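tool_log.txt
---
The assistant was asked to compare two proteins side by side. It first ran the structure predictor on the initial sequence, then on the second. Raw inputs and outputs are pasted verbatim so the downstream comparison step can read them without reformatting.
(1)
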Amino acid sequence: MNAIHTDADDGWSLVVPLKPLALAKSRLAAAAGSLLRPRLALAFAEDTVGAVLNCARVRDVVVVTDDPTASEALAALGARTVPDAPAAGLNAALAHGVRAIRSRRPYARVATLNADLPALRPAELTLVLDAARKFPRAFLADAAEIGTTFLSAGPGVELEPAFGGASRLRHLSSGAVEIRLSGVDSVRRDVDTGEDLAAAEALGLGPRTAARWLSAAG
């Protein structure tokens, strides 16, 4: 029991998945152009990971990616990066990231977070993590209330990710508890389109995204 208590109380470990930058955020090309799009995808991930690492509840972050540029940039922020060894899609990558964490801390409290949350605020993530701690599995729907931006699993509980498309209903059906909180808009605001990016900008973009997007817009 001591090992369980120690791992569980040693902070959250988060998994952040990231496609190769050449393939990431394809729907953003219409607003950003083909040259800026991969640079924005990296900036989104940097601002997301930077905010996560500044959250007091977070112990560490594992980024699952096969992109060497992204791996180097996110490792420089303090994340641990692992290759997408399964190469079998998003949910397999997330399960792989959880295994990488629990190979070192078997009873770690784990969560996954999208890599495209450029307005993410550490204080808002803290609220979500504190709410998630009350349940074996919990999730947060995206701003559209269709997808999912956050999924958690407590000590000894499998994550069972079901991301992609209408994942909110799939996570509900799997038994995960939906977190319903006000004041956590930055944790729900993922960015796939120009309209999404404008909404994130209204919340306040992270420094790397702001620098790249606003310089291009100007």
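(2)
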Amino acid sequence: MFIARQPIFNAQLEVYGYELLFRLNRQSTQFGGVSSQGATAMVITGLFESGLENLIEDKIAFINFDEIFIHSEAVELIKPDRMIVEMLEDIEVSDNLMERLTDIKAMGYCIALDDFAQTYQTYPLTPLADIIKYDIMITPLDTIAADVPTGLAQGKTLLAEKVETEDEFNQAKEMGFSLFQGYFFSKPRIAGRSIRATPTQIQYLKLMTEIHTDEPSFERLADLIEQDVTLTYRLLRLASFRAGSELISSIKFALSYIGLREFERWISILMIHELSKDKPTELIRISLIRTRFAESLAKRAGMFDQEHDAALMGLFSVLDAILDQPMEVVLAGITLPQSILAALINEQGSLQPIHELMLAYEKGDWAVVEAAAEALKIEDYCIYHDYREAINWAKNVIGNIA
């Protein structure tokens, strides 16, 4: 079973919920949902048994339903405050369906209409809908300008889907949309922005450069760290936590206790967090999820000597969006292994299959996921396990650095 999540934002670019994208197995070909009642029931049951909160944390899940599965009692396994029932665009409307949706609304569930391209005033499901999702690639914003005021006047929440640029986000927001879904938030806004690093960020870059010299020195690293009191405090706290009752007496001893590789990962996460302060929190969350996910995938593929590089590749994969610059520009100032640069800049090299699988899984591009997993000899069931574990790991890291 594959399950991924795609964030849905409010107008302040805070995550409102996640649409769950899933496929039960290699024979199930639907994107987002599956057409078989039994297959979808197994996914819902799996979410219930494994703990939905492990996948969506404290947010709400948008889950697709078809005209068959909507009648299943498995719908009620997930509480109304944790799930929005999303009706597929090609659903066959019947009296039986209308009655079932009326009952579901009475239980407290919200109903969303997916990829809405119907005639607003006459479509039978419109009165039952709480949220109307417009795929703005299928129904461009200019073509629905007349329907938007009507929907807002009737108390509908409007969601713009497939939002790929900041201009589209701003236009939809001005029209009255309050929820937004797409990859606009993770793309760099390149025009007119130059990189101005703060003293703290410069310090991180100096540390990264020293780590990747032929013979990195704990003494030179310690000298750089002690120039930043906050960094010194954080390092000593981290080492003390790891050491338990053992006394950490100096920065140099803390470094030797943690080890260069763990220190590099830690300083890289702090750097990404520092750089992304004026960006949506979801961007740093995705960066951290990719860190752990890519590392796990490398391990599953038997690439044991590249686990660490895979983790850094995942971590830095959103750096262009954070700094609003092309990837080759932002990575030019950081000393990194060639395998990471090749994957992130040229989509080549030994880490590229991991990079491809990681991105395809996020988007629910299951055909690419399966082909990449087969090439890497990774079992399907391992991928969802590692993805879910990466979400939990990222949540804990954010809690420690926020």
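---
observation on (2): Residues 230 and 347 are 36 Å apart (CA to CA). The chain has two domains: 2-186, 199-401.
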